[in-house]
């Protein structure tokens, strides 16, 4: 069986599948301390004969195999997990099991590339917009990785003319994440996105920032498609607004596919990450 872990800052999603990627069992485990959370993770997986495992982790993480801290969760604000050897703990328990390790957004990007809205494409940008904003990039069929994982959630953005919100990012204030992630929406408007009416002017401001992310991604990476997942992107009314703003900002400077085909919602819904992790597990064999 293949094993998958989508390790989030709030919960771990763990699943096992057969060799056709049919999920046989799944569980959600609260993210508390490493010993408590991983104890429950091991108890779940120990029920099965695991051939390989794929892991997508919250971070920041060190996902560079050449680094001495490869597999560590590094400067996370979740202090119990800061500078924690996550991959090492998994390998210690499953010494004979090959393990793929990358970011949570990378496994979601890979799932979408293989089984979701990125099928048939070679260069796929995937943004998750929720508690934070992260991006994974599939470059000619492979997960892109530099010396560190790209942190596109912290690119700088131009402020909307009607927006006086200072920004919610503790590092940069009014970066993309600071202006457009879930906490920014809640702090700016006094309520969560799910409680804001679809026709509220708040969404035009949100779309403006996400359209800038699409423009920057287009100019730097030239993807075949840009996919949005995460909680905020479940707001379907956002997509026409993002596409319209993106088209205006880009001003026909470079050629891209039709906006309706280029900027799209996630195809696998909440299963993008776990699907990608299972696919990476299979590739370890």
UniProtKB/TrEMBL annotation:
Sample GO molecular function, one term: metal ion binding
Catalyses which reaction(s): D-fructose + ATP = D-fructose 6-phosphate + ADP + H(+)
Keywords per UniProt: ATP-binding, Carbohydrate metabolism, Kinase, Magnesium, Metal-binding, Nucleotide-binding, Transferase, Zinc
Keyword Transcription regulation: no
Coiled coil: none
E.C. code: 2.7.1.4
Family: Belongs to the ROK (NagC/XylR) family.
InterPro entries assigned: ATPase_NBD, Carb_Metab_Reg_Kinase/Isom, ROK
Cofactor(s) this protein requires: Mg(2+)
EC main group: transferase
Name of this protein: Fructokinase
């Amino acid at each position: 069986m293949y094993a998958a872990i989508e390790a989030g800052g709030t919960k771990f999603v763990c699943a096992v599948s057969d060799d056709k990627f049919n999920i046989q069992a799944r569980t959600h485990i609260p993210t508390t301390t490493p010993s408590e959370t991983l104890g429950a993770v091991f108890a779940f997986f120990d029920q099965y004969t695991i051939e390989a495992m794929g892991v997508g982790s919250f971070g920041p993480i060190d996902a560079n195999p050449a680094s001495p801290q490869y597999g560590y969760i590094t400067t996370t604000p979740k202090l119990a997990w800061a500078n924690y050897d996550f991959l090492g703990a998994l390998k210690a328990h499953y010494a004979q099991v090959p393990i793929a390790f990358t970011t949570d957004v990378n496994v979601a990007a890979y799932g979408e590339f293989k089984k979701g809205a990125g099928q048939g494409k070679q260069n796929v940008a995937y943004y998750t917009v929720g508690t934070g904003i992260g991006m994974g990039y599939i470059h000619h069929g492979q997960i892109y990785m530099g010396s560190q994982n790209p942190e596109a959630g912290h690119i700088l953005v131009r402020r909307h003319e009607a927006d006086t919100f200072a920004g919610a990012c503790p590092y940069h204030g009014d970066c993309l994440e600071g202006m457009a992630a879930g906490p920014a929406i809640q702090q700016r408007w006094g309520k969560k996105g799910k409680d804001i009416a679809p026709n509220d002017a708040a969404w035009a401001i949100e779309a403006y920032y996400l359209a800038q992310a699409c423009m920057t991604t287009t100019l730097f990476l030239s993807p075949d498609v840009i996919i949005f997942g995460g909680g905020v992107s479940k707001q379907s009314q956002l997509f026409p607004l993002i596409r319209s703003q993106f088209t205006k900002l880009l001003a026909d400077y470079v050629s891209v596919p039709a906006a309706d085909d280029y900027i799209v919602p996630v195809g696998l819904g909440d299963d993008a990450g776990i699907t990608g992790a299972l696919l990476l597990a299979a590739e370890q064999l």
